[in-house]
Structure formats: structure tokens, C-alpha cells
Design a protein that fits this description.
Layout (H helix, E strand, L loop, with lengths): L7 E5 L2 E6 L2 E7 L7 E4 L4 E8 L2 E6 L2 E5 L7 E2 L10 E6 L2 E6 L5 E4 L7 E2 L6 E7 L2 E6 L4 E4 L7 E2 L12 E5 L2 E5 L4 E4 L8 E3 L1
Antiparallel strand pairs: 1-2, 2-3, 3-4, 5-6, 6-7, 7-8, 9-10, 10-11, 11-12, 13-14, 14-15, 15-16, 17-18, 18-19, 19-20
Length: 200
Amino acid sequence: NAGTLNSTMYANGDTIIAGWKSNAKITKSIDGGTTWTNSTLYANVSKNIVQLNGNFYLRTDGGIHKSTDGCSTFTTLAGVPSNLEEGALTVSNGVLVCGGIGDSSIYISHDEGTTWTETATTQEPYCLEVLNGVLYQGTRDRKVFRSTDNGATWTNLTGTGINSDGVKSFAIFNGFLYASTTNVLYRTSDFNSVKEESIP
């Protein structure tokens, strides 16, 4: 009964872990989706579920949570804001990187979530994704940033082409970088600027 808006999913072999923003539960299957078990979190699930060194990390609007037992139980981590409305979490070359709407900052952890450092303020990040070893950030106000140092510094790639609010995901395919917004899919073959064309 939970919508797919702002859903998050992790899949590896027969293990599938999923969550939804409107449902404060994590659902897990270890048999390819035949049977499911639930873990309860006392905050809405946002995105993303990531794995680092055998542990799982989950971003919600109540903070970042860590599980050492395959998402059966979670511990809420200190050092990052607990009131971020939406945002993202990813792993970039062994570094946890988190951002959120309402704070306009990026937080990074080099020690698996024990301590966090706030980096230079950019924009309000909707998504963080690593593609070919490069970290990309999409923001609520139509901007695209790239980081080659795991979120410590950022380069604006936005150019002039993005006119739809909310850059929410990225992909690389056949030599193009794609950026998905609320209503339009954009792409560019120039990985230094997302401005070439929109895909209706």
C-alpha cells in the first residue's frame, strides 16, 4: 500500500531490499522476491540503500541509519542533520556521501559513518550517483555538479539546457550522460556540461 514515489531499492543476486517514503519499513527478500520480511524504522524511508564493507546504510528524513545484520536492525548515526526532508546517500570510492533538501550541504564520512564532515555548500541535492568512478549531484533548482574527489569539491556542469525542476537521477549510455528531471530527460555527449538536448 506504499507508493513508489521516492522509493529506494538494493538488489544483489537473490537479495532484494526495498523501502518507500510513505512507509516507515524496510522490506527484505533473500530468495529473489518469493518471501519477504519487514524491518521497522521510525522515520520515512527516502533514498538510498547502500552497502559498504558488508554493512548497509539507509537515508531517511530522520537521518542516516546503519545496519550490521543485513537490514534486520538499524542504529541511527550521529553527526548529520536529522531533519532533512529529502535527499540522497551514496558510496564514492569507499567514502559515504550524504546530502539533503533544506540544508544545502554535503556531508562525507571516511570512517564508515562514525564521523561526518560538512563540505562546501552547493545547492539542495536531490540525488547523488557514482558513474565510472565520478560522483554526480543533481539539485532541486535544475543544476548538475560533478566531483572527482568524493564530494570534497564540486564543478558545476549545468550549462544552459536544463529547464525542468529537480534533477533526480543520472545514467551513462552509449557515450551520453543522461540527467532525469521531474518532467524531462536530458542528455549530453560533453561530460563537462549537460546542455545539448532534451529528450521529450
